[in-house]
Design brief:
The protein is mainly α and 221 residues long. 95% of the residues lie in helices and 0% in strands. The chain is built from three helices and no strands. The chain is elongated and about 165 Å long. The protein starts with a helix and ends with a helix.
Length: 221
C-alpha cells in the first residue's frame, strides 16, 4: 500500500473522530457557542473533503489491484463524510428552528401578520413570475413552430430547385447528344462532298481527254 495514502488515511481518521466528538458536543450547546462550534466543524469538513480528494488521486495512480482495494476503502470514507455533513445540517437546522421560534415568540402577533403579508406578497410575485415564464415558454414555442414551418418551406424550395437543376441537367445532356449527332452528320456530309468533288473532277478530266481525242482524230483525217 502507498505510504502517501496511509498518511492521508491516518489524518482523515483522526479528523473524522474529532468531528464526530464535536458534533456530539454541539448538540448540547446553544447560542453563540453552538454557532462557533458549527463553524469549526464546517472547516473540519472542508479539510476532510480535501484529504479524501488527495486519497482519491493517490489511489488512482497506483497498480490496478491496489487501486481497487483503496477505492473501496475510499467509498467508506466518503460515506462517513456524508454522514457527518448530514449530522451538521441537522444540528444547524435545529439551531435555526430554535432561533426562529424564539424570534417569533418575541416579535408577537404583529410580526406574524407582517410575515404573513410578506409571504402573500412573495406568493403573488412568484405567481407573476410563473405566468411570465409561461408566456415566454408559449412565445418560444410559437417561435419554434414558425421556425419549423420556415425550415419546411425552405426545404420544399430547395427540393423544387433541385428538381429544376436535374431537369436542366437532363436537357443539357439531350442537347449534347443532339450536338454530337449533328457533328457526325456534318462530318459525313463533308466527306461525301469531298468525294463528290473528286468524282466530278475525274469526270471533267475524262470528258476533256475524250474531246481532245475526238478533235485529234478528226484533224488527222
Amino acid at each position: 500500500m502507498s505510504a502517501v495514502f496511509e498518511g492521508y488515511e491516518r489524518q482523515y481518521c483522526e479528523l473524522s473522530a474529532n468531528l464526530s466528538k464535536k458534533c456530539t458536543a454541539a448538540g448540547a450547546l446553544d447560542g453563540e457557542q453552538k454557532k462557533q462550534n458549527l463553524s469549526d466543524i464546517r472547516d473540519g469538513l472542508d479539510d476532510a473533503e480535501a484529504l479524501i480528494r488527495k486519497m482519491d488521486l493517490e489511489a488512482r495512480s497506483l497498480q490496478p489491484n491496489v487501486k481497487a482495494m483503496l477505492l473501496a476503502k475510499l467509498r467508506e470514507y466518503k460515506s462517513d463524510l456524508n454522514n457527518l455533513k448530514s449530522e451538521v445540517k441537522r444540528i444547524a437546522s435545529d439551531n435555526l428552528n430554535l432561533a426562529a421560534r424564539d424570534e417569533l415568540l418575541e416579535s408577537g402577533m404583529a410580526d406574524a401578520l407582517t410575515a404573513s403579508s410578506d409571504q402573500r406578497s412573495r406568493l403573488t410575485m412568484t405567481t407573476e413570475h410563473l405566468n411570465q415564464s409561461s408566456d415566454r415558454i408559449k412565445d418560444s414555442r410559437r417561435t419554434m413552430l414558425e421556425t419549423e414551418e420556415l425550415g419546411v418551406s425552405i426545404l420544399q424550395d430547395l427540393h423544387s430547385q433541385r428538381q429544376a437543376l436535374l431537369h436542366a441537367n437532363n436537357t443539357l445532356h439531350g442537347v449534347d447528344n443532339n450536338i454530337g449527332k449533328s457533328k457526325r452528320i456534318l462530318t459525313a456530309m463533308s466527306r461525301r462532298m469531298s468525294r463528290n468533288k473528286w468524282i466530278i473532277g475525274i469526270i471533267i478530266a475524262v470528258l476533256i481527254i475524250a474531246i481532245i481525242l475526238v478533235l485529234y482524230f478528226k484533224l488527222a483525217k
